[in-house]
Amino acid sequence: MRRCILVIAAFAVLTCVAPAKARPEFTDAERRRILAHGPWPLPVPRDPSNRVSGKPEAIALGERLFFDRRLSSTGAMACDWCHTPSLDWTDGFARGVGRQTVDRNTLSLWNAGFGRWFGWSGAHDSLWAQSTRPLLDAREMDMSAPRVAERVRGDPDLACRFRQVFGQPPSAMHDEAVLVATGKALAAFQETLVSGRTPFDAFRDALARNDTAAIAQYPADARRGLKIFVGRGNCSLCHLGPLFSNGEFADVGIPFFLPRGGVDPGRHDGIRQLRASPYNLLGPHNDDRSGAAAIRTRHVELQHRNFGEFRVPSLRNVARTAPYMHNGSLATLRDVVRHYSELDEDRLHADGERILKPLRLSDGEADDLIAFLNSLSDDGTPFIRRSTATDPPCR
Amino acid sequence: MPGRIAAIALALLISIPARAADVLPIFDAHLHYSHDAWDVVPTLEAIAILRRAGLKRAMVSSSSDDGTQKLYAAAPDLVLPSLRPYRSRGEIGTWMRDDSVVGHVEARLKQYRYVAIGEFHIYGADADLPVMRRLVELAKQYGLFLHAHSDADAVDRLFVQDPQARVLWAHAGFASPGIVSGMLRKHRNLWADLAFRNDHAPGGKLDESWRAVFLEFPDRFMVGTDTFTPERWHYVGPHADFSRAWLASLPKEIAERIAWRNGETLFSRMMNGR
After folding, report:
1. Which CATH number, 3.60.10.10, 3.20.20.150, 3.40.50.1100, 3.20.20.140, labels domain B2-271?
2. How much is the CA Rg of chain A, to the nearest whole Å?
3. A54: left (phi over 0), alpha (psi -120 to 50) or beta
4. How many helices (H) and strands (E) does chain A have?
5. Nearest CA to A321 among A120, A83, A113, A119?
6. Distance CA A115, CA B252 (A)
7. Which residues are within 8 A (CB) of B185 and not within 5 positions of it... i.e. 6 or more apart?
8. Of B46, B84, B66, whose CA–CA distance to B233 is shortest?
């Protein structure tokens, strides 16, 4: 008995004097979620529906076309008018400004090749089809298939490069085939726009290999913000994976009335447009003979909840792509964090378990979350064009 | 003068005739016109939306009830008022524990006439809380339906409180066809709206499990849009078209019942003489 008391007493002393083991900063579940945001970068994507995806000649042709102002009806704007390289492939405006101001914010092209649906409403199911949209939109580049074909055929150098990439000169192709080929070359170029590594990626990889010294390099406020992001904030439920996006659509309580009247139905309209598009993956321009690429298009369903849903954007380089949300209605990351902190639950339907709840963040927590979001930016290396007007002519 | 022109324009808008006679009329049993909608979808525009959609009747409840009264005053032939217990947005999760709700509901019932109390959100044992119990009593006293956004458990509890209650089950509880049919069998005074559901008609085509339920209970269903945000007023028309599309695969007589006759039979006479 006496011996037993001694053992207990010794244990009690030990527990008092031994230094308390520090509680891990992240739970196992949080750690798993953090690791799922990498590794980064992913390999440059290849699109099976685009037979020239990944081909160097197609990438070079796509780059030329991307900056070619002759592809707009006025000759004043090319793709870079809205997707400006020095502005992280967006334009800095709340809503895009082509020949007219459009209804939605210009999405950055960073990592566009990894997408499943394209545009805020997912009205296209391939990057090449999406790339034809602004060409044809009267508010933007205001072209048509015949006019695109005419411009391409009329430039011997461009026509030569088309022949090299697609195996036949544009003069031998139908107007629509030239338009689609233009979209595929543009897509091949955009697939190369993969953002660089970020402070978060270094932290994530350090966490994966338990490198405590490297882990400590990641700022404490960003770590606290990350904990909110993968923890009680539940942000990573939609902003998941290496891209920080599930690629799907959600109604996050942002009003979707249009300044010109009416509403932007978002995904609801996107699905309708997708189904009606002659350029969707169920059509003749899909190069994927296996049929696998078209499965998602075949099975997408129109639902009431799609009304007012918009695509969950990637958060890579998010700090440099303000303003935010589908209509650019939130000017800063702080506005975005405030939106989720003070979310109006009544704008969300009480259908089943709610993913979105007001985060009710303190000012310090909001600062931490913003610090984390800032850590998702790469070093911003300027884009350098690989093709120039002084290149040797195509032969 | 500009105001007069605007008034004439709005009058023209409001008098837009419903769609052609061969278009299936719709009784929309699930609409809200809450305070944040009043400016962005003004009353006359809201009424014009309902008429353009070919709605025969629109059962409306709002946070606050003033929204419902605005619509009813503008189109008493079209709007059927239901009294939502919420005075503003933000009370969905708290109203059942707020005693002041009872006084509010009692005062409105004395002031205005309604076909139902609801839509309210109540789940499980919360249906036995005093505020909800009082609403059941008031529904009985005034001869009103209860429009309940509830799980099956809460619906059962409402019927325990008043076996003669008449309940319109919002969204059919988002329950499976098997559970819904079981509830309809169990409670003869239970009806269901299909608002914000797609599973009965995925891709716009009637699901076979649901077809069996509709054929077994053709008098117990209604359709509804659920304008839970102001923007959704612009979905009333598309939703009516969605309903017409899947109803077309039912026998005409049953399709008409679900589209509008059930609602008309149950609710329309309740406002007669009022």
Report:
1. 3.20.20.140
2. 25
3. left
4. 14, 2
5. A83
6. 44
7. none
8. B46
Q: Span A24-41+198-262+313-387: which CATH code?
A: 1.10.760.10
Task: Map tokens 């309740």 to a residue.
Answer: B270
CA angle, A44 as apex, A41 and A46 as ends, to 5°?
145
User: What is the CB neighbour count within 10 angstroms for residue A146?
Assistant: 13
Q: How far apart are CA A262 and CA A378, in angstroms?
A: 39
pTM, two decimals, is 0.90
- Asked if the C-beta of B205 comes within 8 angstroms of chain A's C-beta atoms, the answer is no
Chain-chain contact of B196 with A351 (C-beta, under 8 angstroms): yes
Each residue's pLDDT tens digit, A325-357: 999 999 999 999 999 999 888 888 766 557 888
Probe site for chain A from B231, B232, B241, B242 (most A CB atoms < 10 A): B231
ipTM of the complex: 0.87
**Closest to B60 measured CA to CA, from B13, B115, B106:** B115
Which residues have C-beta within 8 Å of that of residue B241, sequence separation ≥ 6? none
Beta-sheet pairing, A249-250 with A310-311: antiparallel
Q: What is the rounded CA–CA span in Å between residue A88 and residue A193? A: 10
Whether residue A351 and residue B171 make contact (CB cut-off 8 A), yes or no, is yes
